[in-house]
Amino acid sequence: MLSSKLSSPTMSSENESKNVVAQALVWLAIFITSICVFVPFSPMMPGNDLEQSWRFGIDQAVAQGLSFGKEMIFTYGPYASILTISYHPATDFMMLCGSLFLALSYAAYLAILAHGVQWRWALIYCAVLAGMVGSRDALLFSLPLLAGLSVFKIQTMEEETVFNGKPGPLYVALIFAPFGLLPLIKGSLSILCVAVVFLCFLLFMAKRNRLLALVCLCTPVVAMLAFWMASGQAVASLPDYFISMLPIVSGYTEAMANDGSTLELALYLAVSILMLLAISNQTQMRWKSRAFLACIYFVSLFVAFKAGFVRHDDKHAAISGSFILLTALLLQFVLHSRNVRRAVRMTLVFALCSWVNAAAYFESRYMEMPVDVVYGAMTTYSLAWHGLTGRIEDKNWARTQFDAAASAVRASAPLPLLQGTTDIYSYGQSALIYSGNTWSPRPILQSYSAYTPALAEINRQHLLGSRAPDNIIIKPESIDSRLASLDDGASWPILLLNYRPTGMANDYLLLRRTGTIVDIPARDKPLSQHRFFREIVEVPPSSAPIFAEIEINQTLLGRIQSFLFKPSQLVIKLEQKNGAIKFYSIIAEMTKSKFLISPLVTTSTEFKALYDANGAPSENQVKSIAILARAGRFNSWNADYTISFSQIAPAQSNETTNNKDLPDLRTTYRIRKF
Fold it and tell me: Whole-angstrom Cα distance, residue 59 to residue 185?
């Protein structure tokens, strides 16, 4: 008995030592995993598909010093490479430093949440982070959530010693500093950042910590200014960045929506409800704390829901699938009662099912349960090690790969060298960027993203301004089976007026600016016709281009549906003079701007025919149209709409061009109202 009492202090000391070692190993695992997951030591190199084109277009915009919010308007900001992990010599340092900052912040959040929790849960989270998360968007979405949960855990601990001392404001500033960087990576991240900051502000105010509440509000703003200036952007242009983001965000739901698996939607909603119920059943917690936790989870889950299921393909569904699994695991770090833990475990089962269905996607779909999850984790660590050692051994390691990839892009889509500045009206931005030409993009560099009248007008005004490119390379193409003439449709008349064809290259039409830039004279708006869905509408016959403007409005239910989820999709039925009938997707906001309705133009050759005196081939003329709404959801649209037609007929002008080596093909236009 005496011997057991004497040995008790030794055993206690050994247990404490083991706990210290275990805790240190957990922190080391968190730190290493965060670095490997966040920091793209082995970045993506240039390619020529749609995704890679806009990714490297954003990097090139940073390299050329374009002003974001004015000269470059897109979903992403100057630090986009942190999310896209695309390499560019001009942005690599920014990408590595910004990613490292977020990695350290993420590790700190996890260390705070892991305090007092069984070590195996921290290791499970690290394993999921490294091996299962196939979406970088989900990773960045989880960062504000972790920050909010860290504040929640510290503020609800029995001994609130972390924030009560003199270093308290500094700790709060460190927690919220990443919120200044996230919106500069992707503008839509600002929604989640603002929501979390506001909720934490209310929590601090409820605890009567006004100083900490003020630090919580001010830190993201100060950090954002610092990151903005570090990227080479002018401070005065920061408001423009967020103002220009409004039509991008507001128009995204309708313009980019497509349908996917109903099962994935059901699983995501079921898991979300289970998590919110688990939080509400935490009866030993004060109602204010439960409300804070429920609100921060609801906002995070809603943002991830929209991100994953508005544009419901494998890549975007992976955002929701990965995020739902991370959020379910995080409940284990903040809820501790036995009944709640049962709910948490049930939630995890549902979350795993959701992940298997929605998030088992990463590049070539190599992640499949269960063996390839281990392979995914090994790949994460090995890629980080390979990239880190490669950069240490050869400082030009990444640049050498970049140059080789750029050469491959040039070889796959060769373009001629053109005198002056050049833009490409195609989503193949990479082909132009790496062709050796002087890239001069329109503000919304991808035409399919100019999906509101305001955005279309910005691109149109660009062609009329001093920065209009000398050359245009054009190939009508769009996404989602969309009518190609909708993409930057308002700019097509300006192209016809101020540019003329000089040749073809690899299915691209080459256009050259003809001289002084002029606009189409303003005229009274054409008379509108009142029409209904499915009604056959005759298109005025003409050999000259016919443009249309269509006003389609949502119902009240449709506006609510768009906010909560997405509206039903619209289709236009075209009947050509040769009897052919074709269906294309249309975007209601895009049809409000003038767009070509006849002839039907789907190729560069057909676009070139618009310049011919005889007009496009008669078989391309559109005889009639009808507007349809896809079935499958509540009717989002009013049954009636208005449509107007206008004819833009070219007539040879006596004006001479400033380019003496080019023949005079300058045209003026008269507008005929129907």
Answer: 12
The three-state secondary structure class of 44 is: strand
Q: Which residue has the tokens 């091996």?
A: 131
| Residue 17 domain flag | no
* The last residue of a domain, from among 487, 513, 539: 513
Position 200 in a domain = yes
Residues 234 and 276 in one domain: yes
Average pLDDT rounded to a whole number, residues 87-91: 96
- Residue 560, CB-side half-sphere exposure with 13 Å CA sphere: 6
Separation of alpha carbons 422 and 439, rounded Å: 5
Measure the CA–CA gap between 62 and 278, rounded to whole angstroms. 45
Residue partners of 237: CB distance under 8 A and separation at least 6:
67, 68, 69, 70
In terms of domains, do 85 and 225 share one?
yes
Distance between CA 22 and CA 16 in Å, rounded?
Answer: 10
Beta-strand pair 537-538/595-598: unpaired
pLDDT 10s digits, 472-504: 999 999 999 999 999 999 999 999 989 999 999
Same domain? 628 vs 481: no
- Residues 484, 552: one domain? no
CA-derived radius of gyration, the chain: 28
Q: Are strands 421-425 and 667-673 parallel, antiparallel or unpaired?
A: unpaired
- Token pair, residue 190, equals 């600002």
How far apart are the C-alpha atoms of 196 and 194, rounded to whole Å?
6
Q: Which two tokens stand for residue 617?
A: 């081939």
CA distance 374 to 369: 9
pLDDT in tens, 205-262: 988 889 999 999 999 999 999 999 999 999 999 999 999 999 999 999 999 998 888 8
Strands (DSSP E) found in 517-666: 529-532, 537-538, 546-551, 570-576, 581-586, 595-598, 622-629, 640-652
Beta-strand pair 438-439/421-425: parallel
Angle formed at CA 184 by CA 222 and CA 146, multiple of 5 degrees: 80
Q: How many domains does the chain have?
A: 3
Pair (277, 366) in one structural domain:
yes
Kindly report the backbone phi and psi dihedral angles of residue 154, in degrees, each rounded to the nearest multiple of 5, phi listed first: -65, -40
State pLDDT tens for residues 269-321.
888 998 898 888 887 788 888 899 999 999 999 999 999 899 988 788 888 88
Interatomic CA distance for residues 180 and 203, integer angstroms: 20
Judged by DSSP in three states, 231 sits in: coil
Q: What range defines the domain where residue 612 resides? A: 529-673
Can you tell me the distance from the alpha carbon of 189 to that of 102, in angstroms, rounded to the nearest whole number? Answer: 14
Chain centre to alpha carbon of residue 112 = 30
pTM: 0.89
Report whether 423 contacts 472 (CB < 8 A): yes
Which of these, 257, 356, 272, lies nearest to 561 by C-alpha position? 257
Instruction: Report the candidate in 528, 533, 550, 536 with the shortest Cα–Cα distance to residue 636.
Output: 533
Size of the chain, expressed as the number of residues it contains: 674
What letters, b where the CB count within 10 A reaches 16 and e where it falls short, cover 339-355?
ebeebbeebbebbbbbb
Report the distance separating Cα 228 and Cα 182, nearest Å.
11
Which amino acid is it at 177?
A
| Rounded CA separation 85/93 (Å) | 12
